[in-house]
Automatic annotation (TrEMBL):
PANTHER family: SENSOR HISTIDINE KINASE YPDA. The chain crosses the membrane at residues 722-744. Residues 765-843 form the Signal transduction histidine kinase internal region domain. Keywords: Membrane, Transmembrane, Transmembrane helix. GO terms for cellular component: membrane. Gene3D superfamilies: Histidine kinase-like ATPase, C-terminal domain, Immunoglobulins, YVTN repeat-like/Quinoprotein amine dehydrogenase. It comes from Chitinophaga terrae. GO terms for molecular function: phosphorelay sensor kinase activity. It comes from the Bacteria. Pfam families: His_kinase, Reg_prop. This is Two component regulator propeller.
Length: 976
């Protein structure tokens, strides 16, 4: 929505005729470049058949729907950017007049010119068009600067035979039965028509100015502008019906506009509004001072459009002519008004403002100004109440004053700090609500209250209600004490105003709407839920004839007191200057409303309401990343994850932001409508199919418009066709079958491998068991037992046999397990080493070294992997030595593997191999190869890589040390 600037333009320069000056302002909206207008200089304005307003500028043309401007230039099809005139015909075409003389027009979202429309190809001979006329059969005639008539019949553009020898403007004007003008007026230098010597020229109407027949003639015939005089022209006579000099208008008239009984005159210096001119009224308002008026247009809704040279376009909404406005631009001290009252006897309107200023407006619309309160700080005039004949009591922030409406004399009555409200009883007693006290003037004061007193309402001369920020109170004069009143609800409310009406108390609150109390009981509650303009009430005003007006921060609510129901709301949308309402006063049919932005008064029963539904149109269509012209049938191939958007617009020049839209995408309105304030209707990822989008709109207080339908076809891609989906489904089934077959095959192969692995493991474990204990160890152990028995060492022999049996039993148990704990392995090795020490007569010592980190874990390893290495170290490394040997077994954690080293100081690996028998060599290589194969099988199951390495220390750089170092990395397994 373009930014709308409001200007309150008043008749600062009044011309006094009979009735004197008119103290009335008009609320005018200005549109300029920053609002979207193509240029601040606008030559002409027309309205097309659909309702759009078009503006001709030096940089193209602008089409306006009330909310946004759509600008067209040469790149959009114009023959030239500088468009000096416009004409709209009955077929909806808008014609553009440019200085290059080439014809072009806009029709159905496209600008037609000779580049894309062969019917417009025409040799203009360097002359441009001045005026346009329309005839029967859709013919369009143009008069160019060479006074030649050009005809356009929809097929071609040619010079017409009429006036072939040359014609002037009088020719089409005389033949107005053939040439219907598409302009509202014509400029002439003279009314002397040489070809029509019998035509008469009258400087004034030949009869009563208000004659109905003459007024009809003005509205239906050509109007000629001759300097600053307007003539009604026919082939028989030309009659002047307006002379600017008679109205103080000495400048030439640039444009004019007939507006019912009103007349608008534009000059190069100002705009003049002659209200009721054709009713014989003699008053004129000068508006837009120092503005060059280039054209005037009254649209079909009654709005007035004023184009200017360099100042954009001004718009006066039709309904503003029903309102009168007063503020600091046309006579008031300021725009902020706090109170209002009218003395009907003297026909004097009193307007209370800030700075202690009182403005008066008399029957002759003369405004006077009085400064009543000059106290520093807040000194606004808050209340004006009638008091006796020709007198009013005025309450300001700082005290009470008297004002005589006949003599305009005023006097101070009593100073009162922070006065809030004044109430006068039927007998004339004055009571005042002021901050934390209630004052019965010249009688008593109830002071030092712990609540803020905001309002007061008298029941009679001796009893009254008091409203505070903390509830409702009641008081009678003889008691002089405030007592809580009403129900518990009323005792907690923040009250703004009170009105006693026909035995009922109406209570306006600061945030809860209006309560009605009768006989100390709540009888009704009106809030925004029941239609109240706002729950924040600022004042209650009763007109004495059954209507209560609630002034709120969102307008005025009119309430039927008898029915206790809201009849209507009046807001800025209806024409008020502001929604912040300070006060209301009713004078018969005229309603005065004081706002924070000025005073508005009007006929309360005849507020114009535009109930005509708006014109809705399709602006464009967007699908994916592309934008398409507006068409009623849209078809496009499906785009994956693309959003479909339809952008609509309405032609609404008054309150365009309040337009509502409803749409239905099913084509069946029984399924309901979706309501939105957005004119863009999106549908993300629209699937292939046929859809029917129906859209309607309504403006402020109007009915819904006719439904606009859009047929949308999203065409499927080849892969979305039924046959392609069938092929894809069949291919998918085949693929699933192949995958299932592959999975079953893999499962069978895995089971087969698993069986093979188990078989190999069993074989290897059997081999390991076979190679666990060297048969020599068993035979030698038995020989040792025999030797002990022969030597009569039976006890030692029995111990040896017992340990040997335990070791054999432990070996057999471990051989049946896939994994044993590290603690079990160390215990097995320890028992084995002890037996070996006995067998070899304690010819060696051994030691286990365990890393501290091993204590933090429970580690499981395959059984019978370390023992064969230890056995080899004893038999082939330590046993052949002539002296005592040493064996060290080290265990550590290295990268989630168990590192084990078996280090002996025996004869060494190479020397041992040289003295071994062939049987022993075969045994060793078999044991070590079994260990390596077991490590490889473990890798195939859990991916961990083991390692076995044999190092001869003498040959491998360990100095002069002899012996063998065997290192093995064993994968760790945690049993669950």
């Amino acid at each position: 929505m373009p930014f709308i600037r409001y200007l309150f333009i008043s008749g600062l320069a009044f011309f006094c005729f009979v009735t004197g000056s008119l103290a009335q302002g008009l609320m005018i909206r200005n549109y300029n470049v920053k609002d979207g207008l193509a240029n601040a200089t606008v030559y002409a304005a027309v309205q097309d058949k659909n309702g759009f307003i078009w503006f001709a500028t030096p940089t193209g043309v602008s089409k306006f729907d009330g909310k946004r401007f759509r600008n067209y230039t040469k790149k959009d099809g114009l023959t030239d950017n500088e468009v000096i005139k416009l004409a709209a015909d009955s077929k909806g075409r808008v014609w553009f007049f440019t200085l290059n003389g080439k014809l072009s027009f806009y029709d159905k979202s496209l600008i037609h010119s000779e580049d894309n429309d062969s019917s417009l190809i025409f040799n203009n001979r360097s002359h441009y068009m001045q005026y346009a006329f329309e005839g029967g059969g859709g013919y369009i005639w143009f008069l160019n600067t060479n006074n030649r008539i050009i005809q356009y019949n929809g097929q071609k553009t040619t010079y017409d035979k009429l006036g072939a020898s040359g014609a002037d403007l009088f020719f089409p004007m005389r033949n107005d039965s053939i040439f219907h003008p598409l302009q509202s007026s014509f400029h002439l230098e003279s009314l002397n028509d040489p070809t029509n010597p019998n035509q008469q020229v009258f400087s004034a109407p030949p009869g009563a100015f208000e004659d109905a027949a003459f007024l009809e003639r003005i509205r239906t015939h050509i109007v000629v502008i001759l300097k600053n005089t307007l003539y009604s022209y026919t082939s028989k006579d030309a009659i002047a019906f307006f002379k600017g000099s008679d109205w103080g208008i000495n400048d030439d008239i640039s444009h004019m506009c007939l507006d019912g009984d009103n007349l608008w005159i534009g000059t190069q210096r100002a705009l003049y509004f002659l209200k009721g001119y054709f009713k014989g009224q003699h008053n004129v308002i000068r508006l837009l001072d120092n503005h060059y008026i280039t054209s005037l247009l009254k649209d079909r809704d009654g709005n007035i459009w004023i184009s200017t040279f360099g100042d954009g376009v001004y718009h006066i909404p039709y309904k503003n002519f029903y309102f009168s406005y007063l503020n600091n631009t046309n006579g008031l001290y300021s725009h902020s008004i706090f109170s209002i009252y009218k003395d009907k006897k003297n026909d004097l309107l009193l307007i209370g403002q800030n700075a202690g200023v009182l403005n008066t407006l008399d029957a002759n619309n003369k405004i006077r100004q009085f400064t009543l309160d000059t106290t520093r700080g807040r000194n606004s005039i808050l209340t004006i109440q009638p008091y006796g004949n020709d007198n009013v009591v005025i309450g300001t922030d700082n005290g009470l004053l008297n004002f005589n409406t006949l003599t305009y004399k005023w006097s101070r009555q009593q100073p009162i700090r922070m006065l809030k409200e004044v109430d006068i009883t039927p007998g004339g007693k004055i009571r005042v609500a002021a901050k934390n006290q209630v004052i019965a003037l010249n009688d008593y004061t109830i002071g030092d209250l712990d609540v803020l007193v905001t309002s007061i309402a008298s029941i009679n001369d001796s009893a009254y209600y008091v409203g505070t920020n903390n509830g409702l109170y009641f008081c009678v004069d003889n008691q002089r004490k405030l007592m809580p009143a009403g129900t518990d609800t009323l005792r907690k409310l923040s009250i703004k105003d009170l009105k006693w009406i026909n035995g009922e108390l109406w209570i306006g609150t600061s945030d809860k709407g209006i309560y009605v109390m009768k006989n100390d009981r709540l009888s009704n509650h009106l809030s925004s839920a029941e239609g109240l303009a706002s729950d924040i009430c600022q004042q209650l005003y009763y007109d004495g004839v059954g209507r209560l007006y609630a002034a709120t921060n969102h307008g005025v609510s009119v309430i039927d007191v008898k029915k206790q129901s809201i009849t209507r709301n009046i807001t800025s949308n209806d024409g008020l200057m502001s929604d912040d309402i300070r006060g209301v006063f009713a004078d018969n049919d005229t309603l005065y409303i004081a706002t924070s932005n000025g005073l508005c008064y009007f006929n309360a029963d005849h507020i114009p309401v535009d109930t005509v539904p708006p014109v809705i149109y399709l602006n464009n269509i967007r699908y994916g990343d592309s934008t398409f012209l507006a068409v009623n049938n849209f078809a496009h191939l499906y785009i994956r994850k693309a959003s479909f958007e339809a952008e609509f617009g309405t032609i609404v020049f008054d309150l365009p932001d309040l337009v509502e839209y409803q749409y239905n995408f099913s084509g069946d309105t029984t399924s309901g409508w979706v309501t939105t304030m957005s004119n863009i209707i999106p549908f993300p990822d629209l699937q292939p199919g046929n859809y029917k989008l129906m859209v309607r709109a309504r403006k402020y207080k109007s009915d819904w418009s006719k439904t606009l339908s859009l047929d949308v076809s999203i065409l499927p891609r080849w892969y979305q066709q039924w046959w392609s989906r069938g092929i894809l489904l069949l291919a998918g089934l085949l693929l699933v079958l192949c995958v299932l077959r592959y999975i079953v095959r893999r499962i069978k192969q895995a089971e087969k491998r698993k069986t093979e692995y188990n078989r190999r493991i069993a074989e290897l474990e059997a081999k390991a068991l076979t190679n666990q204990m060297n048969p020599h160890f068993i035979f030698n152990s038995l020989n040792s037992v025999q030797h002990l028995i022969l030597e009569k060492e039976e006890k030692q022999a029995l111990n040896f046999l017992s340990d040997f049996a335990t070791l054999m039993r432990q070996m057999l148990n471990n051989s049946r397990k896939s994994y044993i704990s590290l603690e079990e392995e160390i215990a097995f090795l320890t028992r084995y080493l002890e037996l070996e020490k006995i067998r070899f007569a304690h010819s060696f010592t051994y030691k286990f070294i365990l890393e501290d980190a091993l204590k933090d874990y429970t580690i499981y390893i395959p059984p019978m992997i370390i023992q064969p290495i230890v056995e080899n170290a004893i038999k082939h490394g330590l046993a052949p030595k002539s002296i005592s040997g040493y064996l060290e077994i080290r265990l550590e954690i290295v990268d989630d593997l168990l590192y084990c080293s078996v280090d002996d100081d025996g004869i060494g690996w190479d020397k041992s191999n040289s003295i071994k028998s062939s049987r022993l060599i075969k045994h060793e290589s078999t044991a070590l190869s079994v260990i390596k194969e077991r490590l490889q099988i473990i890798k195939s199951f859990n991916g961990s890589v083991g390692k076995l390495e044999i190092i001869d220390k003498f040959k491998s750089g360990f100095g002069n040390k002899e012996g063998t170092l065997v290192e093995i990395l064993i994968p760790i397994v945690k049993m669950l």
